[in-house]
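Sequence in, structure out. Go.
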Amino acid sequence: MKTIQKMALGALFALGATQANAQAFPARPITMIVPFAAGGPTDVVARIVGDHMSRTLGQPVIIENVAGAGGTTGITRAAKATPDGYTIAMGHMGTHGASPGLYPNLAYDPQKDFEPIGLAAGTPILIVTRKDFPAKDLKEFSAYVKANENKINHADAGPGAVSNVTCILLHDMLKVNPVTVPYKGTGPLLNDLMSGKVDYACDQIVNLTPQIKAGTIKAIAVATEKRAPALPDVPTTTEGGLPGYKVSAWNAAFAPKGTPPEALAKLREALVKAVTDPGTKAKLEELGGEVPDAKGASPEALAALVKSENERWVPLLKAKGNK
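Output:
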């Protein structure tokens, strides 16, 4: 009898310890893996949002940059991390939307291997050209590209980059196949676009706003429903006659599959408080980001977004062979 009583007491103590640990989350710093180099759009969004989340959680959110393979190296690491809430990741359109269409042997499933925490910000895509490109708006741009597809070129930051896959979509809609000039990153791409060595590109507003405002490159259209507050003079793709071209390189937080519900609840609460905080929202919007409301930042909304993005990008990229 005494043995049974001891076993029962032991089980109760273990249960109590487990519940106490769950309630105590977070008891130590949280690592947020950013699957790109420091200073890029995803890194900037992660640091702004992570800073506010730290204040809500009462523990530091430490950014760890793990770059490589279009962001999939860092996301693979996050997927295989211990699912205890202490390792999360800031993914984006490429890592969780387009990646299955780019990498046949991808080591994770964007829809099955993660617990969605929430959307942090959308980063709209812009079509931009060298400053002296002979088109002033999207209608003239479309007509010129169609008439001169064998004479012009477009630049991107290499296979799998946002600038690569978003221009693949644009070219598919315009039914053109111009020469692609790949670069090892957005920096050298922009340098050659500003100097006129390449004709045009598609990329995130966060990367392009300073150059557009300085007049060193020309913005043709922003791929959003409404004009971007950061660039109010730039027309939308709908205004330019290409309403189907709506693209955002959104950033969102994910946890490994199996993360305890108690930890997920606190992480989700912290993220919603971050994106609805006026100061944090202002910082993200100043960069050109589209900041969701509480409903838009919910895990349910993020899960639906990942599913719809897989359905959009995977067939297109597999059919195009990522060219």
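Check: The first strand starts at residue 30 and ends at 34. The longest helix spans residues 2-24.
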